[in-house]
Amino acid sequence: MASIPLNYFKRVSVGATTTPTVIYTAPASRAGIILSAVASNITGSVHTITVGISANNTPGSYYDLLKDFSVPNGDAVNV
Questions:
Q1: Positions of E strands within 1-79
Q2: Which of 28, 29, 34, 55 could form a disulfide with 61 if both were Cys (CB 3.0 to 4.6 A apart)?
């Protein structure tokens, strides 16, 4: 019998977009737990971010964790 690791940690980096972007999808028959999400602003001006989660990309299952949050230039936010 093959053993399945109990904990599998994954680091993902993506650039900011103006539309919702899927960053991680849990494998079939598995659950994903997000320990932390960090958004950093490396530009010279303030930017507004929204961070949310969705169950299986099902319409109506999107929930904002952080909405229209201003991140000052040169700063970061940990969600």
A1: 38-40, 47-54, 62-71, 76-78
A2: 55
Q: CA 56 to CA 63: how far, in whole Å?
A: 12
Instruction: Measure CA of the first residue to CA of the last residue in the chain; give whole Å.
Output: 38
- The yes-or-no verdict on residue 39 having pLDDT over 70 is yes
* CA-CA-CA-CA torsion sign (31, 66, 19, 61): positive
Could you tell me if 41 and 75 are in contact, meaning their C-beta atoms sit under 8 angstroms apart? yes
Look up residue 58 and give its two tokens: 């099902």
Residue 53 has pLDDT above 80, yes or no: yes
Measured between alpha carbons, how far is 64 from 50 in angstroms, rounded to an integer?
A: 7
